[in-house]
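Me: I'm a chemist; would you kindly supply a protein sequence with its structure tokens?

Assistant:
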Amino acid sequence: MFMHDKEHGFDEEENHMELTILHLYPDCMSLYGEYANIMVLRRHLEAAGVAVTVQTALFEDAPDFEHAGFIYMGAGTERTQKAALTALTAHAEAFKAAVDRGAVVLFTGNAMETLGISIVDAAGKTWLGLGLADFATVETNQRAPEDVIAHTSLWESPVVGFMNKCSMTEDATPLFDKLSLGFGNEEEKGPEGYVSGNVFATHITGPVLTKNPDFVDFLMKRIFSVKEWELPASLPVLPYEREAYEVTLKELSARSGN
């Protein structure tokens, strides 16, 4: 169980921290149980005294970007990714406005690719992206399902997870400087993901936040900073999450030879 609020120095009566999480297309873009990323982030935030509201948007909905403090979309098939991109394109300006206001964004799996300039699918058709990033993606006929260990300068611990993609993403400003296991944006063990300001994206699934508590802590710190909330002296820890992370890291490190 979480530690009680009083042990973290929180007083529920004085709590004015509220956050709306906008979860885009969870019915079609949750191929690897990506909804769990929102569940674990919400549990951490609530344990830190934040009142969290999760709003979901389906294809037929107009997403409420105006009130969103955190925006998330997970992985889908190549077909549902294009459907999600088509649905989001109609709301691209509202999405960009939310980013400009400081909303924190996380896109995982092939949701990452929708943020760029374009996606060229395996049949050669070009799909215009949302234009929130300046990279471009080309789908290939070679799928790369494999475990991943990724390294970033944004926090100390490596990130562990899984990747199953059939694409190359060119000219992205990487979230991860290198991989010691797995295929990066353009090459084996190369840089991976994308970051710009408060926009974060990676092909790593897992779901990635359930496997990496330090990634969760990093996002929480960024949210607290954007909202100008006082960060608690110690962030919440879920039962066994760090033990599970250490076991996974040890197993994958042995596989990578590190």
